[in-house]
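Subject: for your reference before the review

Hello V.,

The reviewers asked for a structural picture of the protein, and I figured it would be easier to keep everything in one thread rather than splitting it across files. Below is the amino acid sequence we used in the manuscript, unchanged from the supplementary table.
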Amino acid sequence: MGLPEGTKRGGKILATVNEGAMTSAGALFNISVISGFAAVVAATTAFQTMAGSTVNLPIHPILIVVVAIVILVALTSSPPAGMTIILPILASALLAGGSAANAGILTPEMIHRVATIASVSFETLPFNGMIVIILSMTKLSHKEGYMPMFLILCILPLIAAIVAALIYIVAPSLS
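And here is what came back from the structure prediction:
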């Protein structure tokens, strides 16, 4: 955005602030929509059933974090929404005080780190808007262009999340 010749420094600063305010409104709106969607999903009976089933899986608690986050992100195609929905449930169920069997096994730091890594795993499924836009811009069909994207954007982060979880299982003192 070019400013006319002779504009004072204060006018340039004001123009910059105005431009920043206008562009930030879209980001703020998007985050608000994601948070609202998370609240609606969390209020459904199906979600409560799924969350209860996931938390009670007969696997190490840190692997439950990976499974729960991956499922929610795959359903919402949004890491912030998936984490907003499931992290409070995981924290209350898996940290000390939630379950006697899991008490003291996990720390909030462990859950946060593994959840953050796992959250990017299934963010880019074929119905994700970014994938649709990229494939249309490159004039590729999903059949032609999605498999390499899937391997790099879904499978590699999933492997990283599992490795991080396994590291915490083997060496929990690293948290």
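For the response letter, the relevant points are probably these. The chain has a mean pLDDT of 80. Residues 3 and 15 are 8 Å apart (CA to CA).

Happy to draft the paragraph if you're swamped.

O.
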